[in-house]
Amino acid sequence: MIQKNSSSLLIILLLIISSCVSSPPEKPDNICEIFNEKRGWYKAAIQSEKKWKLPPYVLMAFIHQESSFQANIRPERTTLLGVIPWRRPSSSVGYSQALKTTWQDYQDETGNSWASRSNFSDSADFVGWYASKGFYQGFSATDARSLYLAYHEGYAGFKKRTYTKKAWLIKVADRVQARSNMYQKQYWSCAQELKKKRFFFF
To answer: Is 165 helix (H, G, I), strand (E, B) or coil?
Structure first.
């Protein structure tokens, strides 16, 4: 009887955990549609903006680029001898694709020890936290291109201009800026309406 109850409890727990992992939005190219569909994401983006001063449209452009809004995505495994699945090229995982060591730095500095990379709110807070480090160095909060290059290379790497040897990365950063610009125009068209609905979640 105890074993049966334990099994039932485990199944319920797994269902609860799986339900907490959100699926990607139906219309990822429109930030207004995303926030209307994912009200919890809107709340997380606003909280990150209040705390770290990173605009929602820059935040969402980052997360789109890093994970396409997929909660548990990881880099594909390399192959051994061209056939056997082998190690992953990095420890990145989740919405923000944060590396394990950088995520630990975030947890230590913020005290958010229970944070999960597969949780959107935690990931939004992480991206805001990381971007805020650039604001003290003169980065503009709307300069998604530079912020993304620093996000990828680290602020020390950005200062050394390591990205100049990575043409592919510069193209990615340009795409992030273009998406941020697109999201910004969309966001300002619906920001007031989103704000009116916000009281349901605060």
So the answer is: helix
Amino acid at 141: A
Strands 79-80 and 84-85: antiparallel
Provide CB contacts within 8 A for 53, sequence distance 6+: 128, 132, 135, 141
What is the identity of the amino acid at 63? I
Cα–Cα distance between 8 and 2 in angstroms, integer? 10
Q: Which two tokens stand for residue 177?
A: 């800026």
Was domain 24-201 assigned CATH 1.10.530? yes
Helix (H, G, I), strand (E, B) or coil at 93: strand
Strand segments (E) across 45-138: 79-80, 84-85
Sequence spans of domains, the chain: 24-201
Query: Is 148 in contact with 172 (CB distance < 8 Å)?
Result: yes
Q: What is the DSSP letter of 21?
A: S
Select from 121, 98, 97, 112 the least CA-distant residue to 39.
Answer: 121
Provide block-wise average pLDDT over 10 residues at a time, the chain (202 residues).
Answer: 50 44 89 97 98 98 96 53 44 78 95 94 98 95 98 96 97 98 98 78 46
Is the alpha carbon torsion for 172, 133, 64, 78 positive or negative?
positive
pTM for the complete prediction?
Answer: 0.82
